Amino acid sequence: MTQLCALCAAKRPRLDVPNKTAYSRSVKFINSRREFMVAASALAVASRVTGAIQIPGKTVILTFDDAVKSHCTFVAPLLKNLTFRATFFVTHLWMDDTANFMTWREIAEIHGLGFEIGNHAWTHANYSTPRGASHLAGELALTQNELEKVGVPRPVSFAYCGNGFGPEAFRVLRDAGFRFARRGLSPEVEYGELQVGAAFDPHKHHPLLIPSTGDAYPNWTFEHFERVLTEAREGQAVILQFHGVPDRAHPWVHTPPESFERYMAHLKKHQFRVLAMRDLEPFVDLTHPPHDPMEQTRFPLPQDGKLTLPVEVEATRADLPYWIAGMRAHHYTSAEAALVCGEPKPDVESRTASEPAPRETRALAVRPYPGGRHPRIGFLDGAIEPMRGTKASIFLPWDPASYVVVDLPEAIFTNLGLLFLAHTHVPTIWNDRNITIENVDWRRLPTGGLASHWVLPNGVAIGASIEPREQVVEMGLSLENATAQPLTSIRAQICVLLKGASSFNAQTNDNKVLRKPLAGARDGDRWILTSWQDCGRVWANPPVPCFTPIPCCPTAHRDRRSACEGASGFTRARK
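and the corresponding structure tokens:
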């Protein structure tokens, strides 16, 4: 707070000193605003049930996007001085530019001043497409986790990045528990046109598709600002969208500070209620929101008319009969299969399956895990958007309807940091660079085994193999280093997930054995065990449930390969 206070003193907003009459009016306004908020809060429950409370006239919602540095050096102090509320939507994308964008600590200082912090996703990507939306849950979580580290509560409001939205992103926000989400003026208003957008009407607009009434650009005039405010009538709120004030890094969304001061002084003078997004809650029926045609609308439409699908969906459709057979072996419901295929349920149910040709072997059955359905029972927020390309199912020899999922690898740590993570949780070195790693499926081998090959952005290649034998599955993991520096301190996390093994999946460690290098679970005299060479540690996570060996791999020098081996066994023994 010391830094922010110093900045406030250095850049004190230019406001006229009020005379006694003006001061009296200001006090009266503040008191009336307090009474308004108290009354609204008292009736919030009734509002959510009946929608009986109307938004008062002259209600304005202030929002600011992109975590621009001027939000903490100029905007927040000015709004605090005016006793205005507002929402600041933050993203990680530009944080390396500390001269023009805020740090997490500076964002926390704005929260400490009483303003709402909203989520603007980690990489500020285009979530209007199915592929873009397939990464949104993870990006929301990454942003949320960093905010929690600095004491900012979990956001309830979101702003669509680039004002693009679609049905898939809408569903992600709904499932993630967001209450409010702001879009832009489009599609009602053509992008770039200096026109007034729709005001938010809680009986017309879904709270996750709140339109912007005004989106501030350098070509804004005070007269246009006044036209926007005419929409602040009883029953609806004007939603204002700003970026930086100033915005030196992105001049196309810049608002001059002197213009912004004039806008805010006008709101103050004419006694507008200036609120944050979350302050809309008393006026919105969150339990039964209105049907909004925008729920099925996509903006912008793809230029070539073709939507980019999630990588896993595209791969599934390219070999659909095989994946249908795999989902049936895993007992997927038709709804779960539809999620994997990206198709309506009737289409999936009518598809024929294609089983691999039977082999004359007593080896254990191994299949790629189809994805779509989470392989964990609990601690789901610790593995958001799990990628199926690292996950293989081994079916139990005594119960072919049950299986364990081996995550090979779940994670790889090196001297560079967290090099790879097969889901989204804590930031990897690629998240820090705003790079998204897409799924790479297993390659099926003639032996009935599986192999994978992932090439990371720095050229490091991760290889994995699973080869089934009788009662045992042999596994391997390798790293090929194409970087100039050696990879040292290599630790791999290999997770064996027990959700699909019905008699082994109690959420407890009481049925586990954790004796390095051995880790496993038991059911009576039946055991599922795994062991890896040079194992540094074994542990288990009861909520998941799973057990996890962590092998240590040799240093990989430039253009050299580092590898380790392990195995999972299925046996019967009293001890």
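(Above: one complete record from the training split.) Confidence is low (pLDDT under 50) at residues 1-33, 42-50.
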